[in-house]
């Protein structure tokens, strides 16, 4: 996925320019600018409302002694959606709106969670977490790691000075 980020930084602005030209040719330049400004204002207000709603749900979860994991993920998607809505453009406004609407936001979160869990599971299956066959058997300090590295062994000690 990381290898596609540079492509997105080229494709999204080019798509936005294309849409500005096409829509501006249909409704006029001033109307195009007004539509972009209106979507930004509406988006910020929708973001504020959805953010407060999500924050209240998170506080309720914490008051009940539960971890508000879903609300934390929704907060992250809301932040991305807000940034997309503030960015001038029709494509980014559409994507930002998808992030702000509760139904589509939850669908996006489910999709990303399943993709992330599949990728993490796949990485462990391939052995990329730590595969001794890929290294020389020594750590960066030159000391061979023990088989128990990563385990915590409790005990007591005292210094004899």
Structure notes:
The protein is an all-alpha fold and 161 residues long. It has one domain. It contains 5 helices and no strands. Helix 2 (29-63) packs antiparallel against helix 3 (69-86). The longest helix is centred in the N-terminal third of the chain and has 35 residues, at 29-63. It is elongated, with a radius of gyration of 24 Å.
Q: What is the overall pLDDT average?
A: 80
SS field, number of helical segments: 5
Order of helices and strands: HHHHH
Largest pleated sheet: none
Number-wise, the strands total 0
Distance between the termini: 55 Å
Low-pLDDT regions: 128-143
Cα-atom radius of gyration: 24 Å
Structural class: mainly alpha
Share in helix: 55-70%
Q: What form results from the Cα inertia axes?
A: elongated
Strand % is: under 5%
Number of domains: 1
Task: Chart the SSEs and their pairings.
Elements lengths: L4 H23 L1 H35 L5 H18 L3 H11 L1 H25 L35
